[in-house]
Specification:
The chain is mostly beta strands. The protein has 2 helices and 29 strands.
Length: 383
Amino acid sequence: MELVAGSYEQILFGFTVHREPATSGDRETWTPVADFTHHAHTASLSAVAANSRFVVTGSKDETIHIYDMKKKIEHGALVHHSGTITCLKFHGSRHLLSGAEDGLICVWDAKKWECLKSIKAHKGHVTFLSIHPSGKLALSVGTDKTLRTWNLVEGRSAFIKNIKQNAHIVEWSPSGDKYIVVLLNKVDVYQLDTASVSGTITNGKRISSVTFLSDSVLAVAGGEEVVRFFDCDSLGCLCEFKAHANRVKDVFSFEIPDHHVLVTASNDGFIRMWTLKQDKKDPPSLLCEVNTGARLTCLGMWLDTTANEKASLPPAAEPSPEQPKTIKKDSGDVIQEEETSELNSKESDLTGDSKKPTKGNSPATARKRKRINMLDKKRKKKM
């Protein structure tokens, strides 16, 4: 497993986590070891996501960079957006969704790295998006004070709900039966069957990150050094613990055999891994930590989940991802979102095989080089 973290200093950090078997009377030892640092972006990193092969990073420099974690090389860059990349979400091994301050949500083929669809999703910025576990629905929030539901099977807007404030986080529960919407220091809990708020959780300060630990327990971090666990049914705080010396910027959790792990990152430069107890009323125990010396902004974990599967696959069945093209936004590719219109559904079904990419997103090699040069000149002018 590999921890990856982005920073204000434009650096992406990678740490391989080594696990030493438990000896008599002692518990298993986890040790993060520096694997790489990479400086590809020209502004601070704002988002990171990982699937079974790739890690992608988004930045205030308006680009998405792709890293092949199998080969440990940079795989290319995507430059479709014209604003800070605010969120990146993989669905399986085939699709990536990106949102940005330009109001667009883009659907990418994560094999050929082509833009399958560009949707004008919000009148303001897209601040966050989340994909339902089934892959059939997605939620997005933006600075237009709306919560939008997307039908990913038919490729269209399904529902628009006006909310009182600009939400900055939305997240499905692991089962997909509920979802949460974060507004400043409050978490509204919605039930899928009613699409209405069943209760509200209040945190001490503005919330920076959340992650579901189970279908009913939510870990919440904000502008302070503590992390709190809340029950989404009773809305009460189950426990809180001091995770860092400074405010916590990002949290996420994952499960592997014999371990349920919470990972936290902070402005103090530390990444910490915690082992969760069966009873979430008990604070977690520290597994390991590493000091990056940087002001961290976003966090992810790459798990080589295909290692065992590949061992049983014939050579012809192994994936062979193509080198991505550097994709420049073409104004003709933007599909204006309307409440009742379909959004070229045949091209963007996340539950099936994608078809032809949107016209204009497959430039020839010469055009690709020209666009990269134009992008470099634009960056130099900004600097």
